[in-house]
Design brief:
Helix content is 38%, strand content 15%. By secondary structure, the protein is α/β, with parallel strands linked by helices. The chain has a 7-stranded parallel beta sheet, with helices on both faces. It has a two-stranded parallel ribbon with strand order 7-10. Helix 3 packs across helix 5 (104-125), helix 5 packs parallel to helix 6 (159-178) and helix 7 runs parallel beside helix 9. The radius of gyration is 19 Å and the shape is globular. The termini are far apart. It binds nicotinamide-adenine-dinucleotide (NAD). Nicotinamide-adenine-dinucleotide binds at residues 21, 23-27, 45-48, 51-53, 71-73, 91-95, 110, 114, 134, 136, 164, 187-190, 196, 202-203.
Length: 342
């Protein structure tokens, strides 16, 4: 099974899909693909101001989808939303590492209680639904050994990552204890269209892209030598769909990450080459350094073996596609006046 672009079409056509967090970065790219592949799509999102959600992300498909504006903390609404669905993708989350340190209770509420609410809604009203939950590589914290795979210990360095670690376990527990079909797909450093490019809290690559598109310099903390697996969002969408459509993924946690690593400075330079701007090296802010995980070297062997997934889009091609998406829509993604005259 290969993740060619058309691979999911026959299997997704007519499927009823719910995407929590469907107005955010990953969720809206997924929604777009599901619509293109003929699925019947509902997104469930509260446009949380502390997350990367943006209603403009679905402007091209708004007439083709059902938009449920609600919160994953609302169990009653989730109980309604999960009924008669074939697949649920759980992309709703508080996604900022920094904010989770300043408001840990809100992070628990959304990332832990919100996930339990979704699982309970499904268990009570649609136990046959397939649930694909999105986890994060930062659940592992600092690497104890590399390459890390799904068996690597988890000692996260920030509250968001700790809550993502716990919520992933809830998903796998419901699969095991209640015989539900659940899968976790863990991601790392995604970039691409529809990301939040104006706020450093939602992924440094997307923020750098926003700075470059605004004609500003990219500020790298320290020497930027730490390694990252950067993924283009289209590849991630392939992985999420394969996980949803293949029962071999049930009960599994899978890393859908890039084949190779680049360091932060290299990523910044490649953004400048493709889009513009210059790299500036600055001192680490103390609060960021305290939660930094260092090198992340992660294996994608398991998802390749189980689902036949492979990342297909290179960093430079991903940057080209990302720039092509954002240029004509910039006013919807960057504060007015943020862009410097080029
Ligand atoms: N982007 C990445 O590089 C990356 C890496 C690892 C893991 N992830 C995971 O992928 C998932 C999606 O992340 P993203 O990058 O698209 O983030 P995002 O912030 O762009 O999207 C999250 C969406 O969830 C919505 N949301 C937040 N709180 C909610 C609530 N209480 N009820 C309903 N909706 C709510 C937001 O409005 C937003 O639209 C998250 O689970 C995140 O942890 C992302």
């Amino acid at each position: 099974m290969n993740n060619t672009l058309n691979n999911s079409q026959p299997q997704l056509a007519g499927k009823r899909v719910l995407i929590t967090g469907g107005l955010g970065f990953i969720g809206s790219n997924l929604a777009e693909r599901c619509v293109a592949d003929g699925a019947d799509v509902a997104v469930y999102d509260c446009l949380d101001p502390h997350s990367g959600g943006n209603i403009y992300n679905v402007h091209e498909i708004e007439n083709d989808i059902d938009i449920i504006v609600s919160d994953v903390r609302n169990l009653d609404d989730l109980c309604q939303a999960v009924r008669q669905k074939d697949i649920v993708f759980n992309c709703a989350a508080h996604t900022s590492h920094s904010q989770s340190m300043t408001d840990p209770l809100a992070d628990i509420d959304v990332n832990c209680r919100g996930t339990i609410n979704l699982l309970e809604a499904a268990r009570r009203f649609n136990p046959d639904v397939k649930i694909v939950h999105v986890g994060t590589s930062t659940q592992m914290g600092r690497m104890i050994h590399s390459e890390a795979d799904e068996t690597h210990p988890e000692f996260p360095t920030d509250i968001y990552s700790a809550n993502k670690s716990v919520s992933e376990k809830y998903v796998l527990i419901y699969g095991n204890a209640y015989g539900m079909r659940t899968t976790v797909v863990r991601l790392a450093n995604n970039f691409g269209p529809r990301s939040n490019i104006r706020n450093p809290n939602f992924g440094f690559i997307n923020y750098f892209i926003g700075l470059a598109l605004s004609g500003r310099n990219l500020t790298v903390f320290g020497d930027g030598g730490q390694l990252r697996n950067a993924s283009y969002v289209g590849d991630t969408v392939d992985a999420l769909l394969l996980a949803a459509l293949n029962d071999a993924a049930n009960g599994e946690a899978l890393f859908a990450v890039a084949d190779t690593q680049c360091n932060v400075a290299e990523i910044a330079r490649s953004i400048c080459e493709c889009i513009g701007g210059d790299v500036q090296f600055v001192e680490w802010p103390k609060e960021r350094e305290a939660i930094e995980v260092g090198d992340a070297i992660i294996s994608n062997e398991k998802i390749k073996r189980l689902l036949g997934w492979s990342p297909r889009v290179s960093m430079s091609e991903g940057m080209r596609r990302t720039q092509e998406f954002f240029r004509p829509h910039l006013e919807h993604y960057i504060e007015p006046g943020a862009a410097k005259a080029a």
